[in-house]
Amino acid sequence: MRVAHYLVREPSGLFYFRLRVPMDLRPLVGRAIIKRATGVRCPRQALAITTDWAARYARVFDALRGQGMADEKLVEALLKGIRKRGTMEYRLNMATGEVEANGPEDHARALEAIREIGAITPEFRARVAAARGAVPMDMDEGIRMWALTLPMDTPNQRKGSKSKRSKVEAFHNWKRQRVQGEFQIKDVTRTDLAEYFIACKASTTKRGKPPAPRYIENQFLVLAAFFDWAMASDYYPGKRDEDNPARGHAQVPKKERKRRAKTHGFQAFTRDQVAKIFDPATYASLRTEAARWLPLMALYTGARANELAHLEIQDCYDYLGNPAVPVFDFNLLGDHKSLKTEASERTTPVHPDLIALGLWDRVKRLREAGETKLFPDLEFLAENGPGNAAQRAFSRYLERLGIEARGEGKVGMHSFRDTAITTMKLAGVRREAREEYCGHELSMRGDHDEAYGVDLQPPALAKLCHPALSFGLDLPALRKLLQ
Question: Is the dihedral of CA 181, 185, 186, 190 positive or negative?
């Protein structure tokens, strides 16, 4: 036989009655789910019992909305579903209609509750209506208040907060045009978000192309965060994920994410392109020290541009005092720093080619001069990070060289990350070493290895990774450009 949707069978075999309380009645009822044991294992008996329960709760909900009158059965059902006040030792058997109370005090409390809810008066209906509604708040004022809760400590956080606010404001402007005026947060419906999703898919970017699915998904993740805040602040009705109107609309399958990352992401440079990029005759066109150093450091470390630009003199040292193992310590210590993931915090051995280019001489010179940053001339409060200027200069340099991506992909300084990883992979460096060297999330580790595994130390990483990262550059000529 077909089991009703409100019947749940537990592993013990017992059937339970499970009913979701309508969202507008949850403030009054005091719970989102009503779950009760039927006490039987036979599906027919359970259905017979719970069919009556479902009908009674339906009459309860109608009465709470001001539709219908209270009767004895309604009182019995409502008594079971009202918000618990303190510890109630009395129980109501909905199958038999019997009330069980342990002692005179519990019996008196049960009768008091019955008298309180026995008559649904106009005053009671007014209280229900007030409980159902959220606190009125205009959407524009709500966005302003929500933005005050976003982190703003670092330039990267300020950039992220600004981006999040712009995404919510985009939805606000879209709906305001539809309703031709301001509206309140509680007036937003799931249908609004469904129609906004369709509008986002139909829009075009500045280049005249449709937005990436991941971009739209990020927009709705931010909107979901905004409505989570609104629900927690009682500006929007509901308390759970399923009550959030922005959830469930834009979800990109994992397979599609991987496919798009391959076709639209940064592409690794070929060895011929690496030789062309670091030809001393053309590389001299990059004017600043950071613009010349950062691409070379990215090539040999696979690090992100801003990770390298944030390095401080104290982050460049000999591992355990051994001059044979110089390292970069990528960490969050110091001013203005930020890292993308937890795996980004790592200690990477410095390639011998970077030492031959004079990098450690530079560290020594800056330390003696009392500097704290490896590139003190950069703007560390820049919205896109201190490495942004060097990245833009490098992108213009690639255009002058005529180096372009294939298809819909991209090339830039971040391509050196893919170049280093691909080069090590082709040389047979195992994945664990590659990921630890470049600061990737460890994809092959299980829970046991996460708990008991030990990270590879810089000497071991140097032995495994450095031989593969050999590109045959003209180091003496490049060193002259870096002094």
Answer: positive
Say how far apart CA 341 and CA 254 lie, in whole Å.
19
Q: Sheet holding 33-37: strands in order across? A: 7-9, 15-20, 33-37
Q: How far is CA 335 from CA 72, 329, 338, 394, in A?
A: 69, 15, 9, 26
Q: What is the pLDDT of residues 61-111, one digit of tens each?
A: 777 776 554 444 444 445 454 434 333 344 444 333 444 555 555 555 555
Question: What sign has the CA pseudo-torsion 321, 325, 326, 328?
Answer: negative
Cα dihedral: 420, 425, 430, 436 (round 10): 20
Any bridge partners for residue 348, and if so which? Answer: 328
Using a 10 angstrom Cβ sphere, with 0-12 exposed, 13-18 middle and 19 or more buried, the burial of residue 399 is: exposed
Segment (H or E) for 327: strand 326-330
Q: What angle do CA 171, 177, 183 make, to 5 degrees?
A: 70
**Smallest Cα–Cα separation from 149: which of 32, 230, 47?**
230
CB neighbours of 150 closer than 8 A, spacing ≥ 6?
Answer: 157, 160, 161, 164, 165
Q: Which residues contact 243 (CB under 8 A, 6 or more apart)?
A: 23, 231, 237
Q: Which CATH number fits domain 265-482: 3.30.1330.60, 3.30.70.100, 3.40.50.1100, 1.10.443.10?
A: 1.10.443.10
Coil, strand or helix at 182 = coil
At the top level of CATH, the class of 139-254 is: mainly alpha
The secondary structure of 187-213 as a DSSP string is G--HHHHHHHHHHHHH---TTS-PPPH
Question: With contact defined as beta carbons under 8 Å apart, do 417 and 298 qualify?
Answer: yes
> What span, in angstroms and rounded, lies between the C-alpha atoms of 246 and 225?
9
Query: In which region does residue 230 sit, left (phi positive, over 0), alpha (psi from -120 to 50) or beta (all else)?
Result: alpha
Q: Where are the domains of the chain?
A: 7-132, 139-254, 265-482
**In this predicted structure, what is the pLDDT of residue 341?**
81
The residue type of 166 is: S
DSSP designation for 98:
E
- Among candidate residues 264, 239, 261, the one with its CA nearest the CA of residue 407: 264
Tell me what the mean pLDDT of segment 396-425 comes to. Answer: 93
Contacts of 137 (CB under 8 A, 6+ apart): 145, 184, 185, 186, 230, 235
Cα distances from 73 to residues 17, 59, 117, 178, 456, in angstroms, run 18, 9, 12, 46, 69
Selected residue with higher pLDDT from 31 and 452: 31
